[in-house]
Specification:
One of its GO terms (molecular function) is phosphatase activity. The chain is α/β, with parallel strands linked by helices. The protein contains eight helices and six strands, in the order βααβαβαααβααββ. It has helices at about 15-20, 35-45, 60-75, 95-100, 105-110, 125-140, 155-165, 170; strands at about 5-10, 55, 75-80, 145-150, 180-185, 190-195. It has a six-stranded mixed β-sheet, sandwiched between helices. The protein is globular, with a radius of gyration of 16 Å.
Length: about 200
C-alpha cells in the first residue's frame, strides 16, 4: 500500500490526434481549444481540494495540461518520466485503418490478451503496470500525501489498478475522459470522479 492520503489523477486535455483517431503513445500532438478548456475546468475543480504536490508525464500534451493546473494551484509541476504514456512503438501516429493494413490481425490478437499484448517495438499494459508502480513509489518517496498526477488514459488505468487494488480486467475496462479528475483513496481502495464528465 502506498503511503498516500488521497491521489488525484488527471488526463491531458483533448489533442488534435485524439480528434483524428491517431495513436499517440510517445509521440505528441497539440491540445485543441477544447482540450485547453477541459484542462481549465479540471484545474478549477481541483482548486477546492487539499492537493499538496503536482506531478506530470514528460509528454508535451501532459506538460501543457499540468501548466494549467500549476497556475490554478500555485504549485510547480514536477516531471516523472515513468508517467509517460504506453509506448505504441511502430503504431504511433497511425489511424486504425493503417494499423490493420500494416499489421493484419494485430487488433484481434490484442483484444484476446490486452494486458500482455505488446505493441510492435513498444510496450504492453503489463510493462506499464510495473512502470506505474515505480512512478507511485517515487512520488510517495517525495513525501507528498495528496498529489495530483497528470498523465494519460492507458498508463492512468495502471495507476488506478495499483492505487485502488483493481484486477487487470477491472482496470482495463475503465475509461478516463479528458474532462474529469479521479479522486482516489488508496486506504479504502475506492475512487470517484471529482466532477461529472461533460463530454
Amino acid at each position: 500500500m502506498f503511503d498516500f492520503e488521497t491521489v488525484y489523477l488527471a488526463r491531458h486535455g483533448q489533442t488534435e490526434w485524439n480528434v483524428e483517431g491517431r495513436r499517440q503513445g510517445r509521440l505528441d500532438s497539440p491540445l485543441t481549444p477544447t482540450g485547453l478548456a477541459q484542462a481549465r475546468r479540471n484545474a478549477e475543480d481541483a482548486r477546492a481540494e487539499p492537493i499538496d504536490a503536482l506531478f506530470c508525464s514528460p509528454m508535451g500534451r501532459a506538460r501543457t495540461t499540468a501548466e494549467v493546473f500549476a497556475a490554478a494551484l500555485g504549485l510547480a509541476a514536477q516531471v516523472v518520466e515513468e508517467l509517460a504514456e504506453v509506448d505504441h512503438g511502430r503504431l504511433s501516429g497511425l489511424v486504425r485503418a493503417q494499423v490493420e493494413a500494416g499489421w493484419p490481425g494485430f487488433e484481434q490478437a490484442r483484444a484476446r490478451d490486452k494486458y500482455f499484448c505488446r505493441f510492435p517495438d513498444g510496450e504492453s499494459y503489463a510493462d506499464a503496470d510495473a512502470r506505474a508502480a515505480r512512478a507511485l513509489e517515487a512520488i510517495a518517496g517525495s513525501g507528498a500525501r495528496r498529489p495530483l498526477l497528470v498523465s494519460h488514459e492507458m498508463i492512468g488505468r495502471m495507476l488506478l489498478k495499483n492505487l485502488a487494488g483493481l484486477s487487470r480486467t477491472e482496470a482495463l475496462a475503465l475509461s478516463h475522459p479528458s474532462d474529469l479528475v479521479y479522486k482516489v483513496r488508496p486506504d479504502r481502495r475506492e475512487f470517484v470522479a471529482l466532477s461529472p464528465a461533460t463530454a
